[in-house]
Amino acid sequence: MSDVIQDGSLVYIFLDARRNWIRRVRAGEGFHSNRGIIYYDDIIGRPYGIKVRSHSGTEFQIHRPSPTDVQIAMGRNTQIVYPKDAGTILIEAGIHAGCRVVESGTGSGALTGVLARAVGPTGRVYTYEVREDMFKGARKNLEKFGLLDNVTMYNEDILDGIHESDVDAVVLDLATPWLVVDEAHRVLRPSHYLASYSPTIEQVMRTCKALGESGRWGMIKTLEVLQREIMVREGKTRPTTWMVAHTGYMTFARALVVE
User: Fold this and answer.
1) Nearest-CA neighbor of 167 among 155, 181, 184, 150?
2) How far apart are the C-alpha atoms of 11 and 4, rounded to whole Å?
């Protein structure tokens, strides 16, 4: 991966926490905002991390987009699994390079992209989305950010069945995850993880009930992660008045061997 901005590179253009953009650099073109124009020819061949001024004199930073930058950009029109939760899912469910992961629903493709990066070129993500409009939007997002190479997408309802077998993890972001626990167990390798993301505690309760009653799952637990930024300033460092508090509950369970 080059450290130099090239024609066709994705760049993260940062002005401040509220004004930032991901754009693809094209020779002869430019980035336009109400703070002026940045001509791409002026940054091609230069390293990521530079400061540049628009034609009107406003200073911007130019960075390589991070996975978090991409995830948030993909989800601006839909509710996404936040980075703080996505990271927890990866660690708790043991998702790493080479894994084969089933996901549903795809939504905007934000979590799909995180999973695709985590499993790498030797792994694969199989993602199911029942809504055609969301399916098409997610495919567009994943193509835009170059995250489709190791992803298989289905415009199907996962409740109708999972095509794959012997997978390393099943990740659910559904309204009714408790309806999928038996099918998830069928396709999972023994001792591997189901991860279910739900916004409400009622969904969590029904999912945990289904997991416990099936007798096929062990180590069932539910987590919530809160994130608070700290403003570090001379003589007045303190937490911000706004924080990313409740976004969703994450339930994890390991597949047991049923004899």
Assistant:
1) 184
2) 11
CA distances from 112 to 90, 98, 251 (A): 12, 15, 18
Domain residue limits at 40? 10-63
Instruction: Identify the pLDDT of residue 2.
Output: 78
| Gap between the Cα atoms of 36 and 58, Å rounded | 7
HSE on the CB side for 239, CA within 13 Å? 6
Rg over alpha carbons for the chain, rounded to the nearest Å, is 21
Same domain for 40 and 163, yes or no, is no
Write out pLDDT tens, residues 46-71.
Answer: 999 999 999 999 999 999 998 888 87
Helix (H, G, I), strand (E, B) or coil at 64: coil
The residue behind tokens 């043991």 is: 94
Average pLDDT score over the chain: 93
Residue 30: φ, ψ to 5°:
-155, 165
Q: What pTM, to 2 d.p., does this model score? A: 0.81
b/e code 208-217 from CB counts within 10 Å (16+ = b): bebbeeeebb
Indicate if 77 and 155 belong to the same structural domain: yes
**How many helices (H) does the chain have, and how many strands (E)?**
6, 15
How sure is the predictor about 30, in pLDDT bands with cuts at 50, 70 and 90?
Answer: very high
Same domain, yes or no: 126 and 238 = yes
Amino acid identity of 22?
Answer: I
Residues 32, 118 share a domain: no
- Out of 50-64, 67-81, 220-234, pick the least confident: 67-81
Strand partners, 39: 30
The total domain count for the chain is: 2
* Coil, helix or strand at residue 188: strand
